Amino acid sequence: MSWLILFVAGLFEIAWAIGLEYSDGFSEPIPTAGTVAALVISMVLLGKAVQDLPIGTAYAVWTGIGAVGTASLGILLFDEPATGARLLFISVIVFGIVGLHLVSGGH
């Protein structure tokens, strides 16, 4: 269950990171409120997950999910470059997340 909680925490990390773009430097009230809410939810879920998972593993997976999701959405939503090298390194992060899950006995 902790891995599922961690995964959902990572999804909320993506939400708040993308929300930063839409909040326009926290000058847009509704996107700002959504960004702050997603940040709080992400942190609470991360805190819950680390009750059962090692902090180093959980933090690396959480940030990895956030990095992959945010970089991918940056390409899709904000026309950020999708170069071969960029996609390669995003995939390296995905392999790292999967690897940490496998060696940590995650189910």
UniProtKB/TrEMBL annotation:
<dbReference type="InterPro" id="IPR037185">
    <property type="entry name" value="EmrE-like"/>
</dbReference>
<keyword id="KW-0813">Transport</keyword>
<keyword id="KW-1003">Cell membrane</keyword>
<feature type="transmembrane region" description="Helical">
    <location>
        <begin position="57"/>
        <end position="78"/>
    </location>
</feature>
<dbReference type="InterPro" id="IPR045324">
    <property type="entry name" value="Small_multidrug_res"/>
</dbReference>
<keyword id="KW-0812">Transmembrane</keyword>
<dbReference type="GO" id="GO:0022857">
    <property type="term" value="F:transmembrane transporter activity"/>
</dbReference>
<keyword id="KW-1133">Transmembrane helix</keyword>
<protein>
    <submittedName>
        <fullName>Small multidrug resistance protein</fullName>
    </submittedName>
</protein>
<feature type="transmembrane region" description="Helical">
    <location>
        <begin position="33"/>
        <end position="50"/>
    </location>
</feature>
<dbReference type="InterPro" id="IPR000390">
    <property type="entry name" value="Small_drug/metabolite_transptr"/>
</dbReference>
<dbReference type="GO" id="GO:0005886">
    <property type="term" value="C:plasma membrane"/>
</dbReference>
<feature type="transmembrane region" description="Helical">
    <location>
        <begin position="84"/>
        <end position="103"/>
    </location>
</feature>
<dbReference type="Pfam" id="PF00893">
    <property type="entry name" value="Multi_Drug_Res"/>
</dbReference>
<keyword id="KW-0472">Membrane</keyword>
